[in-house]
Amino acid sequence: MERFVQGDEQAFSELFRRHAGRLQGALRRMVGPAADDVLQTTFLSIVRARGRYEPGAAFRPWLYTVAINAARDHLRRHRREEPHGHDQLPETAAEPTPLPDPGLTRTVEAALAQLPASQREAIVLHRFDGFSFREIAELLGVTETAVKVRAHRGYERLRVLLAAEKEPA
Amino acid sequence: MSECDRFLEALASDSLGPEHQAHAEGCDACRQLLPGDAPVAAPSLSLEAVRARALQELRTTPARPWTRDAARIALLQAGVAFGVAAMLGVKNWSSPMAEHMALAVVGAMLLAVVSLGSVLALAPGRRRPRLVLWLLPVVPVLLWLSGNGVHTATTLRAALPCLATVVLTAAVPLAVGLALLRGMALDGARAAALGLSAAATGLFALHWHCTDGSMPHLMTFHALPWLALAMLAIPLRRSLPTASHVP
Prior knowledge:
The complex is a heterodimer of chains A (169) and B (247).
Chain A: H1 2-5, H2 9-31, H3 35-48, H4 59-81, H5 102-112, H6 117-128, H7 133-140, H8 144-166
Helix pairs in contact in A: 2-3, 2-4, 3-4, 4-7, 5-8, 6-8, 7-8
Chain B: H1 3-12, H2 18-26, H3 28-31, H4 45-60, H5 66-89, H6 102-122, H7 127-131, H8 135-146, H9 156-181, H10 188-207, H11 215-239
């Protein structure tokens, strides 16, 4: 990370290789088809403001914090421009990237898209990206209890939505 | 409580046991919520485009330590505070409050708010900018301590120049600070912290010259505009585009 801060392109490429794919998946679940735009904004942000990185800090939580900020900014602007944006079910996936069990993935993503953004963030980070509740609390700047409440409510709603998907029409 | 509810409780509290796992594997709804490896997208054209664009940005954008920006804004604010204090002193250098021993101490503390406050407001992370918000109760108390109780600005017309001084003195530091805040994630507390620090430049300048040391005057025409400017910084920052979402 220190080498990247100094402007080392190889160091940046290595960080990108390690984290970009997984982050893209998380962003797809948070903002739907705009994931690539938000991913670009995230990496441009860390390049432009790499002087704000504090030596010794873990890179992955820092990167996710930036991504969440970028996603929130996108959703805020999107809401202002199009009142019924990502809060509705996405019609299509972001792009035809090969994913394991695409049918199941799409079902879960569609259900996730119906959750409020705060619950969606907590679940995506916990369920799909393996952060602990304490780490998520640090990322989001809220208490661990608040994250647990959001996740609990989100999981509850998600289960109902997924169960409804399974029911025959 | 159903099995699904128990599974959900366990999932949300990071305490999944074998019995929850067994239930989830046999339940269509819960199975999809079982933690596991996230499906990682395969390298795609879009990822390569993002990497190429970021590398291009890396080549053209030098690293800018946050401390450099913080030092610049601190120096600017201190310069404006001293400059306006000196300008006001051309006509009126002394004030009735000067009899108070607290004057120098409070002046030094206001200078710390002006300089260190802006550094904390721009510091990375969430915690340090929030420390500045402790000034909300502290500064009015400082102003009250520095006043001598003498009420001289008995009309609105006599008191308004104090309000105008706080607002006008803060204009440039606040504008520069807001421009710097564009380079970091939108954070209302950070914007308010910077606003409190920038608006304290006017408080510092007035501190040496205001001839009214009464508490109603100090609260209404010094502290209130200071607070209002800090609050105004939040919607102003919100209205500006963000160049980087780094905290």
